[in-house]
Amino acid sequence: MKKIHKLVLKAYIGPLLAIFFIVLFVLMLNFVWRYIDELTGKGLDVNTIIELFICGTINMVPLGLPLAMLLSAIMTMGNLGENFELLAMKSAGMSLMRILKPLLVVVGMISVGSFFISNNLVPYANQRMYDILFDIREQRQELKFQDGMFFNGLPDMSIRVGHQNDQTGLLTDVIIYDTRSKNGDMTTTLADSGYIRMSDDKAYLYVTLFNGQTYEHTRSSQWYDKNTMREHIFERQDGTFPVDKVARPEGDMSREFSESQTRNMVELEELMDSLQKTIDQSTMATYQPLLRKQLFVRDTTIIPNDSIRVDRSGYHAFNFYDSLPGLRMREKARVYSMAAQSARSSQGSYSFDEHSSKIAITQYYRAEAEWHRKLTLPISIIVFFMIGAPLGAIIRKGGLGTPIVISVFFFVIYYVISLSGEKMTKEGTMDATYGMWLPVFILTPVAIYLTYKATNDTSLLDFDWYDVRIRKMRRAISKRLPKWMKRRKKSNKTNKYI
Questions:
Q1: Which of 5, 118, 258, 495 counts the highest number of beta carbons within 10 A?
Q2: Is 155 within a domain?
Q3: Number of structural domains, the chain?
Q4: 483 is in which domain, residue-wise?
Q5: For residue range 164-190, what is the model confidence (pLDDT) as tens digits?
Q6: Cβ atoms 140, 202 nearer than 8 A
Q7: Confidence band (pLDDT; 50, 70, 90) for 347?
Q8: Phi-psi region for residue 79, left (φ > 0), alpha (ψ -120 to 50) or beta?
Q9: Is residue 476 pLDDT above 80, yes or no?
Q10: What sign for the dihedral angle of Cα 99, 100, 101, 105?
Q11: Is the pTM above the cut of 0.70?
């Protein structure tokens, strides 16, 4: 390896690693802010927290790599240009692509590694994050009361204490609001002191209260005008309250993750094949009986007679109206009843099959989007590098100021286009080949243009270059415009005499 290549690699690797970890740190701050409420007060061990953060970091890598690649490329080439090192290399006869040759090798290796991370590590990290978050949500909060503050960590219960003794656990000035009753009844308990603790399995709440009273607000179906209250005074009151556990959601994993985000490309293909079969079966179960027995048999105007080999002799679209007036009232009532029952049955079957089909279609679109996402990430990294490196060579500005502004600008464009394309893909309004690859399709011409400008040592805003091109276009238009006008006038005269 040449010394010049080592110089370029050394100038690039350092900023790339530093910027990548800074971007990950910023993204992880968003992760912590998102789940901070669920992590506090649960008595989690250090290993669980570390594993959750590692999984979150792996999940942020596909989002942080393109931005780090873009910013580091602009900074590296900007520093080389600002220090006239890039000019010295070009004076020695080295082209821009020759200077970027070792960096392209590194970027290619990073792209391959990003595909491995996105296809293998990210699905596993998402699965582990889902399992850990579910276990955390299943756990009940530790009963750590704050003086004078309401504790709302239990479902349908609110507890307020005046003071909690940290050594003995004794609570004073206890108020408990219990709204677990399904018929709208509410129980309010006030006590001078007491103890409240959770069972070891977090399934029951043990309450022991001293010197207090309980108010039961009983409401009937007409609670707005019938509302009674009963009072009970006690010296000691013991109670055990069951605490409902969180049920693991079926189908879509949760609001954070979909099932497709926990699978690699091979598993996604198997999932899409299974969903395709489900969609086909649901569609056939819904429409085939209706089309075959109801529509095509009785209405011959939709499909020609020879397309479906069904004897349609004696059928007419509305021939039943001819015999209906001749029936007796009881027979008419029976016909109406059978027709209504058949309609309700068909409607119920159609609604059920339609619901299952819609769910399968939604999951299919998500799986398809996730499959293409794993391919777009490596290509996006290369595209961002081919934008950043030529742009840094053109602006020749090092440091963090200008490169950060430019990088954020391009990354925001990429992120907005990516979100829009992904949304349209998941909604089924755009094919995944276009929706998920839309940012690549838009930014690739930008990368080619910037590479061309940097290779030819032309400024990005060279108004003379644009002026020359505009003048050439005007000359070409002015030469062809008179000929077109003459042909237009001749055509109008011909049409006038006709």
A1: 118
A2: yes
A3: 2
A4: 464-498
A5: 887 888 888 988 888 777 666 788 888
A6: yes
A7: low
A8: alpha
A9: no
A10: positive
A11: no
Answer yes or no: is 484 within a domain.
yes
Q: How confident is the model at residue 101 (pLDDT cuts 50, 70, 90)?
A: confident
219, 242, 265 - which closes a domain: 242
Q: Are 215 and 230 in contact (CB under 8 A)?
A: yes
For residue 432, the Cα-to-chain-centroid distance in whole angstroms is 15
pLDDT for the residue 379:
92
Q: Measured between alpha carbons, how far is 315 from 216 in angstroms, rounded to an integer?
A: 70
Residue with tokens 């969903």: 275
Furthest-apart CA pair in the chain: how many Å? 114
Q: What is the number of residues in the chain?
A: 498
Give the pair of three-digit tokens for residue 399.
């440091």
* Residue 205, phi then psi, degrees to nearest 5: -115, 120
Provide φ and ψ at 189, rounded to 5°: -120, 130
Average pLDDT, the chain: 75
Burial track 48-57 (b if 16+ CB lie within 10 A, e otherwise) = eeeebeebbb
Query: Cα separation of 394 and 404, whole Å?
Result: 15
